[in-house]
Amino acid sequence: MVTGDSEEQRPAWYLEPFEGESVSHYFGRFRRQPAVSISNPARLSRLAKMGPVLSRWEQFYFNPPPTQTELEAIAKLISLDVEKLMALFPPSGERTLHRSTRLCAACYRDAPYHRMEWQFQSVAGCEKHRLRLLSRCPACDTKIALPRDWELGACKQCGMKFVSMVKRQKCY
Asked: Which ranges carry the TniQ domain (predicted)?
């Protein structure tokens, strides 16, 4: 539908992805919106009639990679263009780490969201800030939670804010 200003009308639950945002972070943000009453990835997957794949994606498991049918089904359900949804995933051939979530606290301070590129096996540090990526909280040594759970932007164990972790990042 088009308004007089030629802007597309979006449903109340529409959520624009951030540039480079990870699929895990995006769907965590999506489900936390007041207009969305779906609290877990399994239910959202069932509604899209695509099996339990969303939970795998949010944990950075992309083997097998998402199919066009799966992407179209979830994109339709959440009213997002398939191309924008595809941008949340790693490029074809790029391997990801799924045993630990990685974070550049300096990037997060600049714009608080998880970047998909931080999970690439080929990435050791942040090129922009020349800092090593964190996979554990520098205060309590707990693994950084999955981005889908980053509601407070802090360590789930000790509460240290991600933005304050930057002073504990090592040079790259």
From this structure: 15-133
The answer as to whether 97 is a domain residue is no
Give the C-alpha separation, 44 to 31, whole Å.
Answer: 9
Q: Which residues of 95-121 are buried (b: 16+ CB within 10 A; e: fewer)?
A: ebebeebbbbbbbbbeeebbbbbbbbe
Mean pLDDT of 100-114: 97
Domain harbouring 58, CATH code = 1.10.260
The domain of 73 spans 23-86
Task: Give how many domains the chain has, as a whole number.
Answer: 2
Summarised one tens digit per residue, pLDDT across range 50-66 is 888 999 999 999 999 99
Whole-structure pTM value: 0.92
